[in-house]
Amino acid sequence: MVTVKINKNLCKGCELCIPFCPYDSLAMDDTLNAYGLQPVYFKEGHPCNGCRNCAIMCPEAAIEIVTAQ
Amino acid sequence: MKSSLHNKQLMTGNEAAAEAAIQAGCRFYYGYPITPQNEIINHMAMRMPQVGGTFIQAESEIAAINMLHGSAAAGARVMTSSSGPGISLKQEGISYLAGSELPCVIVNVQRGGPGLGDISPSQADYFQAVKGGGHGDYRMIVLAPSSVQEIADLVYDAFDLADKYRNPVMILGDAQLGQMMEPVEFYKPAKTYLPPKKWALTGADGRPKNVIKSFYPVKGELEKFNRRLQKKYRKIEETEVRYEEINTKDADLVLVAYGTCARISREVMNKASKIGYRIGLLRPITLWPFPKDALRRLSQRVRTFMVVEMSAGQMVEDVKLSILGRCPVHFYGRMGGGVPSTNEIINNILEVLPKINAADSVEMIEI
Amino acid sequence: METLYAPPKTLHRVATHYCPGCGHGIVQRLIAEIIDEWDIRGKTIGIAPVGCAVLAYNYLDIDMSEAAHGRPPAVATGIKRVHPDNIVFAYQGDGDLAAIGLAETIHTAARGENITVIFVNNAVYGMTNGQMAPTTLLDQKTTTCPEGRSADEHGSPLRICELLATIDRCSYLTRVSVTNPRNVQKTKAAIKKGFRTQMGKKGFSLIEVLSPCPVYWRMSPIDSMRFIDDEMSRTYPLGTFKDWEKEGS
Known about the structure:
- The structure holds three protein chains of three kinds.
- By secondary structure, chain B is an alpha/beta fold.
- Chain B has 13 helices and 15 strands.
- Chain B has helices at about 15-25, 40-50, 60-75, 85-90, 90-100, 125-130, 150-165, 175-180, 220-240, 260-275, 290-300, 315-325, 340-350; strands at about 10, 30, 55, 80, 105-110, 140-145, 170-175, 180-185, 210, 245, 255, 280-285, 285-290, 305-310, 330-335.
- By secondary structure, chain C is of the alpha/beta class.
- In chain C, helix 3 crosses helix 4 (about 100-110).
- Chains in contact: A-C, B-C.
- The interface of B and C includes residues 73 and 100 of B.
- Strand 9 of chain B pairs parallel with strand 3 of chain C, so a sheet runs across the interface.
């Protein structure tokens, strides 16, 4: 099972990761981070095939992708 | 390659500057042609490959000073040279070098200005060199040779001074010194080993990264850095002043001159003594740090000073500042490439000094 | 637990000053990833420009130098001549590379210096508030062409890759973009090839990256990427203009 970890306080809410997720598993949070921006979050339980598109697009290197055993 | 130049030979001042740099372990030279210092770039083009060094004729003086920045940041001994308009182009680069605390040597062979001017000797770039032609509160050590031998000696020392203080050093010459030929001996030992510089950019293998910068955008940091630079400059002022004092005891008048004007002043002293005047000379060798203490001390027993420059009067201001009104400071200058003759200077001295004997016993010297 | 992707170690884990969606963040992350993958932190030296990326040395954990505006290729030349076995790259924006520094860009390429220039082209001067760049598109509005760039009044944009392609000692010249994951990976491959060009002493390499400036284009980051795909790449077509591997030299 693949988990997408997002560093909420590095994310600037640019939304570049969202359209490239093949499963629409990313969305904007409605809370604010330390910047005063809405960060992105990974929808719990949504699929992820580890394509890494989100991490590849992220300008802040705020995304880490791990497989949980 | 070990240089075998350890006996006297006849060389132009420009070539001597280049050769002395190589003796001092400089293996990187970046320059652009401009009269009257082309002998430097030509000599370096010939010699650098012989000693396994790097020579680049850059696309402009701006490119050259920035290549200097790179090689100095990388820890090497590096030199550039230029004149007038080219030195003006380098000013931003010099400010960056001083602000990044990078050691390097810049040879300035002054020519007539302003603008394109001419290619004759001049000393009208003193302000630019000493007061800072670039932006910001920085200082450059400025050395003023007055013979080809001294050019060789000072260029050699310049690299040590630059490394010691992590600061740019300028050799301030002029077209006459650069182009004339005199015997010169490279007696200082050729540097074969230079200690590594811990701060240099070499690739952060096994150590934290080094960053060479002059940008301090966080509030308060830039002022703190400037204070540190000022502390360094005070130390240089305390330790590195160089000057020469000749015949100043009981002098009627002391000439203050550097470079070519100092050479001419020596002959003025000789000629004047033949007509009964005792003229002394204080020759600054470091223009920054300026020998203000020496002048201040001299002004306590000497009645009159005369500053001789090939300019409208630049160093004279520093002489006046050092003496602080204690006695008159006269000035004689030639501009735009004009070089004063000994007779002109003597006539000028005679105009300002009270006559020793009755007027008819003083030989008026015609120009 | 297996890590499929972790942020590169060579990137300091700090908040950057870049705007949300700025291309600099992507490109610098790619450089850091390459340094990690090839384990070249100990031999890479970078030169930061004047421009939005001026603080790049705060984000990349390698030896770095600042340079005066436009002069990174000259500074890179100075560094590479002292350390010819290091990997030396100059990172520049459009003002730095194509306006004030154009002479250094051209002559460093002409000399065939074994350095890599990473040219982040976002068609505007971001750091100073949004003025026209040499690469600003026709009709694009900026603070110094508020009615839109007009060829008659402001001249036409400069195509740097095409300009440099006439230079013999330019060994690798390519234009890429960061508009989608595939293009981002192509940019990474291009930078890798640039580094390989200098490691093989094949000469000068330059990678032009079409990059978004959402704030001064007055668009969202996603729309900026679309703008690059639909509009910007019509003035600046993607592709490779010089490739020493294909020319067999």
